[in-house]
Design goal:
Length: 308
């Protein structure tokens, strides 16, 4: 069938799910979703501000987590299986991998039940467009349709990046979003007062999703989506540049990113797992100095300035 996808479900120990998720994310360009109930009560209170949790969730095994990877009909699932098996074995992560066929619409809708309106920082509420019942409680509402692009605001990497962005936003000035994914950072920057945003991503689906999210939030006329390589596709300098991607991509882009940051600008990077923080800072230090460091559950985000 034209829309027959393959779902890979990987069971791993909950205390290794971050590292396992990083590896799984390398197999597909459009993101994964993770079931992890090890901090269920804590996160329910912190994020949703509720202490009444469904019994079915409370009964889930807290020692394990499940990573769901979806392989499109055009790609060979055996390559992903081989890659995951090799990498998990090499780094010593115990895993159980199963697979089954599914229709595209099934898996696109499957993860939506885990994505609810979520307050971020002091000013924003991220609201998935299918959730009609929500209380903004005075916050700026960012209406989001993630599509297949990474970035919902629920993961620590995106949340940390949004919180730093809120702190360093420059009203009336332009913003550059490197690896824009769903466009969540660009839309947030515009809603928080920046004059324009450029989002660049090598994935055309991500750029399309970002453009649609900008339009959904009434800021489409101030957002420019570019599909291509950062160095070849972007011009000018920006007072705030953000990259919510993975450590390897941050390292790859660090030299180019310095060219697009204005002299007194702030470069926000997120998606760095703490075990790689020293390596990332060491390489970035050629062009940048750390202004601020935020961490949540093993994920690190940095605010940087150009070296004098």
């Amino acid at each position: 069938m034209q829309d027959q996808w393959t779902e890979l479900k990987i069971e791993v120990p909950a205390d290794q799910v971050d590292k396992a998720g990083d590896i799984a994310n390398m197999t597909v360009p459009y993101g994964i979703y993770i079931e992890d109930y090890s901090h269920l009560e804590e996160e329910a209170m912190e994020i949703a501000h509720i202490d009444l949790i469904d019994d079915a969730l409370l009964s889930r095994d807290r020692t394990k987590a499940w990573i769901h990877v979806y392989i499109s009909p055009e790609d060979n699932p055996e390559e992903a299986v081989s890659f995951l098996t090799e990498r998990y074995t090499a780094v010593g992560i115990p895993f159980v991998l199963s697979r089954e066929d599914c229709r595209q619409e099934d898996w696109i809708n499957n993860w939506k039940k885990y994505f609810k309106p979520i307050p971020v920082g002091e000013k924003l509420l991220i609201r998935p467009v299918w959730e009609e019942q929500y209380d903004a409680n005075g916050r700026i509402v960012l209406h989001l349709e993630p599509g297949l692009a990474f970035g919902t605001g629920t993961h620590e990497t995106t949340r940390l990046c949004l919180e730093l962005l809120e702190k360093y936003v420059r009203p009336g000035q332009p913003f550059l979003d490197v690896g824009c994914g769903s466009g969540i950072l660009s839309v947030a920057a515009l809603l928080l007062g920046m004059s324009s945003a450029v989002g660049v991503d090598i994935d055309p689906l991500a750029v399309q999703t970002a453009q649609e999210n900008a339009a959904q939030n009434g800021v489409g006329d101030r957002f420019t989506g570019i599909c291509g390589n950062l160095a070849d596709s972007v011009r000018g300098t920006y007072p705030v540049v953000a990259a919510n991607i993975v450590a390897d991509a941050i390292l790859l882009l660090s030299k180019d990113a310095s060219r697009f940051l204005s002299e007194d600008g702030i470069y926000i990077v997120s998606g760095i797992i703490d075990t790689r923080e020293a390596e990332v800072i060491n390489i970035l230090s050629e062009h940048f100095q750390v202004v601020e460091r935020w961490e949540e559950r093993g994920w690190v985000a940095l605010a940087l300035r150009l070296r004098s």
